[in-house]
Amino acid sequence: MASIRELHQQLLRKERSAVEIAQESLNQIDALEPKLHSFLHITRDRALEQANQVDAKLAAGEEIGLLAGIPIGIKDNLCTQGIPTTCASKILQNFVPPYESTVTQKLRDAGAVMVGKTNLDEFAMGGSTETSAFAKTANPWDTARVPGGSSGGSAAAVAGGECVVSLGSDTGGSIRQPASFCGIVGMKPTYGLVSRYGLVAFASSLDQIGPFGRSVEDAAILLSAIAGYDPKDSTSLKVEIPDYTQFLIPDLKGKKVGIITETFGEGLDPDVEKAVRAAIEQLKALGAEVREISCPRFRYGIAAYYIIAPSEASANLARYDGVRYGKRIENAEDLMDMYTRTRAEGFGAEVKRRIMIGTYALSAGYYDAYYIKAQKVRTLIKQDFENAFESVDVLVSPTAPTTAFKIGDKSADPLSMYLIDLMTIPVNLAGLPGMSVPCGFDSQGLPIGLQIVGNVLREDQVFQVAYAYEQATEWHKRVPQL
Predict the structure, then answer these.
(1) Catalytic pick from 75, 117, 255, 327?
(2) What are the start and end residues of each CATH 3.90.1300.10 domain in the chain?
(3) Which of the residues 150, 195, 397, 436 is marked catalytic?
(4) Is 75 annotated as catalytic?
(5) Positive or negative, the Cα torsion across 464, 465, 471, 474?
(6) pLDDT (tens digit, 9 = 90+) per residue, 19-69?
(7) Which of 105, 295, 401, 477 has the smallest CB count inside 10 Å?
(8) Catalytic site residue 57?
(9) Is 128 a catalytic residue?
């Protein structure tokens, strides 16, 4: 599958129609879905109808934007009017939203072609896309392995060429970690840059929607389209949104890059360390000034996150009670029986685990001991980043401590699964922008990601560093042989 800009040029030159491009994407989905299971719903008719509209505009001599006619996958926790939005949970199995999320509306207005809703960990809770109630997504580089999570379907769909770009959501690493595992680019923007209206909430102070692409430029184009103030989201930032592609400069002279020392050491796969260290040398060769930076409280991120995120999930998921929408148990004896049985049957084990942790942390007597303490730690982690950004423009680290693991490897050990997000979680706690770009392969041929973190609203710096690195290397050009 070509890049957004290449496809746009083909459309303008009338070399291909939007319908042909959409059909190519749908054909790839038909060929690969039996192996990958990236999608929960394939929106074939909608896609061809949207593509037809783009062709009609071109035929009438109207101008089209860069995203018009571009096949895109949407994570199935973003509300799409008239199309099921399940969050990969039985409790929302038959839920069809009566409204459209802000980001998907923006993409529709831009003429993007939605080919389907992608698989995820149930309610975005997981790091491997194995907690989905409907399917386990496979990694296109090795179908015996996980694609990462929770946005594993979105990452696998782009890596496998089923769509050009896709949207994911990132609460503790759910865009960057699957991007690393699948060898593509994934970006989590500054908290509040992209509207969360219509994103089914997991942890409201951490969730952020962002793009996946094969290249940094594709991610920049997609972010430019979805970012911006939205009065429907109370956490949305009122800031000017630039065209992020203007920051794609292949030169890093004068840029200061900090290596987060705490992300190297025990638990880091040697192949990952080698690739990331080589990437840092490449940044130096491009003219960047590189120095070691300590973020001493970085390592408390996971502990703080697994109190804050489940607490917010416990509050957010209280609405799934079988009353207004979603699953409802028949033949209940009374209201309490209906509530408890609906939730017992509707939620999977990981979601129940997190609801219970959160409810416990928020309960009388424990709120101060756990929740308030975790929020204080969050502030300290934020301060570490603030101190770091006084002397550097961006920070770099491995995206994940390992490459993709085998399906089933960590299912019985939630703690080892949680540790996969060691490098990404602190970025969410501080609300910063972070990106994963491909930076190599391990001895088994599995992709490795380099994480680049910027200061608040400094997506421009992240894009510049990522683009310069990408253009100087060949990693992003390698595709899985399915």
Answers:
(1) 75
(2) 4-257+391-477
(3) 150
(4) yes
(5) negative
(6) 999 999 999 999 999 999 999 999 999 999 999 999 999 999 999 999 999
(7) 477
(8) no
(9) no
